[in-house]
Design goal:
The protein has about 500 residues and is an alpha/beta fold. It has 17 helices and 20 strands. Helix 1 packs parallel to helix 17. It is globular.
Length: about 500
């Protein structure tokens, strides 16, 4: 591209999707400027440092490293040369109300042994479920991943209408839910509850989410769960280094007021300070629904093809402990007694669950440097409803915090937890909403609810405006850290293709 400012490409928002899109575009030869209203880059993948403790504030589970490799490969880099990765196996530990525990292992043979000891007779169903998950994952790669999809019509358009395509679409389990599919293979309620929680990566109820999301199980058991030394923030810093090496202009602390569209084409943007920046194109990494209310107010992009529901939010406790708990793994789930009632509270009654499930990340097990010697930077996440009129989080939080701590003390063996806390901070749906400017405080973008359409999010490439693409958890392929990174790759690739002729695409090396 020429050096003229009108040839610039903007990325609006510096979350993981925006950073990934900027890397792909810059690697293809674009003159990229990235705008981020906050003073930090990475969006929810921020870092909290408190009294000698270091916390990842948002995502903590790294899976599907191939998505990250693909972004770095766009610039001829290897992910493993940029970040040290440690494989975690067991992948997580489950604590149940009956005081039983179950570890999730990646290897099928080891997991079968674990299940036969835990719930005799459940292993064959688990193996059948994994086989089904593998088929769904293959179909997701064929029809959804690394393609700008927003509807069933987009699937057909990309693959062509044929008997084979229709057969594949039907085999995705259209009309079935995750919960129904899981229980069709695994009758033991504790094992089923563990498998349900693969959908918690996308902040949705398993009894309302489409069966195709069962493919997440294969993604995790196949590629593994990893810990980047230094935390998820180490991945963000590696992306930032890559962008600087590629010459991307990073403008933090600069919000964007609107993206300008004339004649159904992006022509520029206006910052909150009133600066106008002419553009050849833009990637929008803001929440797609909120972007249409603010950045693209009055513009018919064609991206919002139906009414979308916010995914769930959460209560997050960042607890600096003077002494770590040796019986915790890096990742842990402390399950509710009645998951149906839990999901009813969160997703339909829109209130904090009385019978809650808590996710615990205890990273000092893998990286002692996150805390003073012998300590732990304990991260606790409890899913909560997106913001609603009936819940005042300033009023509700103190009692709900205590309910969470009591749950951990009685069910996860953290009896003296409160005595070990030396410092803490917290986020609620209200503070998440104000901090990250997401729809109704949702931490996973848009919900994946709907037996038929739940898998579809707004397309990365809107039909009504050229020179505009979308990246992030509220765009295709949806929420969850690897999907967000993938959405950035799709958005960057799609915009580069629109600007073809002005850019010189760089050859991709193998990313798997």
């Amino acid at each position: 591209m020429s050096a003229s400012s009108s040839d610039k490409v903007a990325v609006v928002g510096g979350g993981l999707g925006g950073l990934s899109a900027a890397a792909v575009l810059a690697a293809r030869g674009a003159d990229v400027v990235l705008f981020e209203r906050n003073e930090w880059l990475g969006g929810k993948a921020a870092e909290l440092r408190l009294d000698g403790y270091r916390f990842d504030m948002g995502p903590t589970i790294m899976m599907l490293p191939s998505a990250w490799r693909r972004v770095f490969a766009a610039a001829g880099r290897r992910l493993e040369d940029e970040v040290e990765l440690v494989r975690l196996d067991p992948q997580w530990r489950c604590f149940y109300p009956d005081r039983s525990t179950l570890d999730l292992w990646a290897g099928r043979e080891r997991m079968v042994e674990e299940l036969e000891a835990f719930a005799p007779g459940s292993a064959p169903g688990y193996e059948r479920f994994l086989d089904h998950s593998e088929r769904l994952n293959r179909l997701a790669h064929d029809y959804f991943f690394y393609k700008p999809i927003g509807s069933l019509w987009d699937v057909v358009r990309h693959k062509g209408l044929s008997v084979s395509t229709l057969g594949d679409v039907m085999s995705m389990g259209a009309g079935r839910t995750v919960a129904g599919t899981v229980r069709g293979h695994v009758p033991d309620p504790r094992v089923a509850q563990m498998l349900d929680h693969f959908t918690q990566y996308v902040g949705s109820a398993p009894d309302a989410s489409p069966a195709v999301l069962c493919g997440i199980a294969h993604m995790q058991t196949d590629e593994g769960v990893w810990y980047p030394v230094g935390g998820i923030r180490a991945l963000v810093e590696a992306l930032i280094r890559l962008l600087r090496d590629l010459g991307v202009e990073l403008r933090t602390g600069v919000g964007v007021r609107r993206i300008e569209v004339e004649g159904q084409r992006v022509t520029g943007l206006v910052t909150e300070a009133g600066e106008r920046v002419p553009l050849a194109g833009a990637v929008c990494n803001a929440d797609v629904v909120r972007a249409h209310q603010d950045l693209l107010a009055g513009v018919e992009t064609g991206a919002l093809t139906r009414r979308y529901e916010a995914a769930c939010s959460g209560v997050v406790l960042y607890l600096g402990l003077r002494e770590r708990y040796e019986h915790l793994l890096h990742h842990n789930f402390v399950f509710s007694e009645d998951p149906e009632a839990e999901f009813e509270d969160i997703y339909r009654r829109k209130r904090p669950a009385e019978d809650l499930t808590a996710y615990l990340c205890a990273p000092a097990q893998s990286d002692p440097g996150v805390a003073p010697a012998g300590g732990e930077a304990l991260y606790v996440l409890v899913h909560a409803p997106a913001l609603s009129e009936g819940v005042d989080w300033d009023e509700v939080f103190p009692a709900y915090r205590q309910r969470i701590l009591d749950k951990l003390k009685t069910q996860a063996g953290l009896e003296d937890l409160e005595e070990r806390i030396v410092c803490e901070q917290a986020l609620t749906p209200a503070s998440i909403h104000s901090r990250y400017k997401v729809l109704d405080g949702a931490i996973y973008g848009l919900a994946s609810h709907g037996r038929f359409m739940g898998a579809f999010k707004p397309s990365n490439v809107p039909s009504g405006v050229s020179g505009l693409t979308f990246a992030g958890g509220s765009a295709h392929p949806g929420p969850g850290m690897p999907m967000v990174v993938m959405s950035g790759w799709i958005a960057g690739d799609a915009l580069a293709r629109q600007l073809e002729g002005a850019l010189a695409p760089a050859p991709l090396v193998a990313a798997s």
